[in-house]
Specification:
Structural class: mainly alpha
Number of helices: 3
Shape: elongated
Amino acid sequence: MTLDHVPGAAKLSFDVVSAGIAVGTLAQLLPHIAALLTIVWTLIRIFETDTVQTVLRRRRRDLE
């Protein structure tokens, strides 16, 4: 599952909001659920990077 169909501007907007939530959480201005959602969003974005996808494809190929 990838976010290729989501426009880049929308991704950037979520990234900015995610960073703001992270800062707010560190400043103890927001509840812990915001931190959890930020972590989930960041992990999804990392998972979608070309580097991670290349590593995963290599591992799948090696397992076959």
